[in-house]
Design a protein that fits this description.
Spore_V_AE, about 0% strand, globular, SpoVA, mainly alpha, 6 helices, about 120 residues
Length: about 120
């Protein structure tokens, strides 16, 4: 049942993004930004953690989880280090994912040649 709810919740998040692009005529960049901000707002309101507990990977894989991670890291570090912790918390929580994206993109550029 856990896989079912992960699929449903992750799919619904993706449907929201698709509706924003198709009906709202938002660009992919605007849609992505809207989803990140939505995840951040939901985490700020304390609603994203229960969604993660319920849906697991269905809530942690989509881009909304990035906004959740930003706010979650900032709040945790703000409690420990004050105002400076807000900035360091954002970088601490997201640095591994961003670093992995940069490293794997570089490795892919060594293997594949762009067409153009």
């Amino acid at each position: 049942m856990m896989f079912f709810w992960a699929f449903v919740v992750g799919g619904l998040i993706c449907v929201v993004g698709q509706v924003l692009m198709d009906v709202g005529k938002l660009t992919p960049a605007h849609t992505m930004s809207t989803l990140v901000v939505s995840g951040a707002v939901l985490d700020g309101l304390g609603l994203y953690e229960p969604l993660i507990d319920f849906a697991g990977a269905g809530a942690t894989i989509p881009i909304t989880s990035f906004g959740n991670a930003l706010v979650h890291g900032a709040m945790a570090e703000a409690e420990r280090h004050g105002l400076v912790g807000i900035i360091t918390g954002i970088f601490e929580v997201t640095s591994a994912g961003i670093s992995a994206a940069i490293i794997f993109s570089f490795l892919a550029s060594l293997v594949f040649r762009p067409k153009g």
